[in-house]
Amino acid sequence: LKLAIKKGPSLLQQVLPDIRELYDDVCQADPLGEEKNSPVPNLIHRYRDRVLLMVSQECAIYCRFCTRKRRVGRNGFKITRESIEKGIDYIKRHREVRDVLISGGDPLLLSDEQLDWILAAVRDIRHVEIVRIGSRVPSALPQRVTPHLAKVLRKYHPLYLNIHFNHPDEITKESSQACQLLADAGIPLGSQTVLLRGINDNAEVLAALMKKLLAIRVRPYYLFQADPVKGISHLRTSIEVGIHLIEKLRANLSGMAVPDYVVDVPGNGGKIPLLPQYLVELNEKEAVLRSYQGETYSYPQKPDLHPSAH
Q1: In order of start, what are the domains of the chain with their CATH numbers?
Q2: Does 70 qualify as catalytic in the annotation?
Q3: 179 is known as an active-site residue
Q4: pTM of whole model > 0.70?
């Protein structure tokens, strides 16, 4: 909170209630249909080979635009050791699951001992190949990231950590040190950013964020179009804005610094990537392409002598 007050609106708007939240009659409480895809409490199985396991119901800060804000403070969504065990048992019984995303709430708010137990139980499942953690702790509560926590996490490679960063002001000396501890433990770090009106819907702001992330060894991963969660219409941008911003980033940053711009669509459609239109024309002889500078170029097509089935 001290950081938010010091830095100003860019951080405060993410966490402070706004009267405009009461006048949103367009968005939904559960736009992604997570509850419909929850075969056991606190586990979401939307994609065939991946599940999301919620292990915590607390966060270091409570984002006003959170996809799961419907769960905050509700007894019906309580997470217990028993519910976590049921989720782990579900994963054991579904051999098609090879990738587990541990989420919440924020998993890194659990004690080191609780995290150790959960990660050991998931890693012990033979068909689980990849374990991921989603967290905002390194940016919102960096002092929670300790050498002992890093030591616990490094036991469970391959383990990936995606961190929620929305604005360059969130990258401080403390958050940088937290990321350094995690990276030094061999944990690949990625960032997940939500595109927010009046906060980071600006090419210069996003470019500064992405450059700072790479400097602290966090690879920009996703730029999310804000989910249409009830109460956040005033924070959502149009998709046209997002595409324009990605085009600006591609023109001014290296590929490593440009995240994938995605929309998690309502109706169980999953994440859909969006790109500026660089393909102008495609025929048997050539592909006509547009560069980031707006100029067009011809790329000769190779004759497909032995077409394969697609």
Answers
A1: 2-276 (3.20.20.70), 277-310 (no CATH)
A2: no
A3: no
A4: yes
